[in-house]
Amino acid sequence: MTQEGLMRAPPILQKIVLIVLSLALIAGGTPGLVAGQAPLSHKPAELDKLVSRIALYPDPLLAQILAAATYPDQIPEAAKWADDHHYLRGDDLARAIAADHLTWDPSVQALLPFPSVLGMMASDMDWTTELGNAFLAQQQDVMDAVQRMRKKAKEYGYLRSNEQVVVSGDPYITIVPANPTFIVVPVYDPLIVFAPPAPGFFVGGAIVFGYGVTLGFAFRPWGWGTTRFVWDRHEVFIANVRWERTWVNRGAYVHHFAAYHPWTGARGAERHELIPRSEAERNAARLGHARVPELHHSAPVHH
């Protein structure tokens, strides 16, 4: 119905149409996109440019970014929370996330230990939204774009294994942390690392793996340690479950770890309880001298 036709329609019909449109916008999850409206289709060169700033990130971090980008409306608040709590590390940060009962998707919460990453996403919401929409509508094409960019960086000599990451694979290039619990955030200029090096240019210094975050067992509820790509099948696994959120089901799809809040033991969830860290600490806790908790993974709880 056109706008002119809507204005001429009976008031009750106008109200019904407005309600339907409002529900469609809510289901779409992205401002300005009505449910059922087809997303933009990106050509390979456009996707190459879109993923260039994150294509060389370690696989687990890249997977979390792509998943989180499908919830662009949650990114700005998450970036502010991460910046406000940038001084927290390890279990202290995990407990703070849980204590605040955050309602963002776990893929967004998974990035809270990385204020710089969320800051980058929040500072360029057009890019973040476009990336998320592309991943929803063209997951295989997005993954292929990542591989094309990685191959360029590797062929030109920029991308190589070091003390922080292991680069391997042919024809699909993987970038995995040398230490599974230490996730680094590489810093590089896409205009440099995806182009042939100038004569005499030191390619070894083009990608800097200086900043990293230790994510131990306390961060398992958010998929850390159990997130990966299966590149040859174009699949993404987060928390050991395949990520299947698409453009079509984006209004209803809930990844299994998003169906509950960690530490609540909600239906179908894995319960995470606080227990002392060692035998000595257990004894101290029983005597009331100390209470040093850590996260313990126990059997699923069903109510």
Task: Provide the fold topology.
Blueprint: H1 3-8, H2 11-28, H3 44-51, H4 59-68, H5 75-84, H6 90-99, H7 106-109, H8 115-123, H9 125-137, H10 139-155, E1 165-168, E2 174-177, E3 182-187, H11 190-193, E4 208-214, E5 228-230, E6 235-238, E7 241-242, E8 269-276, H12 279-287, E9 293-301
Antiparallel strand pairs: 1-2, 3-4, 5-6, 6-7, 8-9
Helix pairs in contact: 3-10, 5-8, 9-10
Explain this structure:
This protein is α+β, with helices and mostly antiparallel strands. It folds into three domains: 1-37; 39-252, no CATH class; 263-303, no CATH class. It has helices at 3-8, 11-28, 44-51, 59-68, 75-84, 90-99, 106-109, 115-123, 125-137, 139-155, 190-193, 279-287; strands at residues 165-168, 174-177, 182-187, 208-214, 228-230, 235-238, 241-242, 269-276, 293-301. The strands form four sheets. The chain has a three-stranded antiparallel β-sheet with strand order 5-6-7, covered by helices on one side. Strands 1-2 form a two-stranded antiparallel sheet. Strand 1 and strand 2 form a beta hairpin. Helix 5 (75-84) packs antiparallel against helix 8 and helix 9 (125-137) packs across helix 10 (139-155). The longest helix has 18 residues, at 11-28. It starts with a helix and ends with a strand. Mean pLDDT is 81; it is low at 20-35 and 259-303.
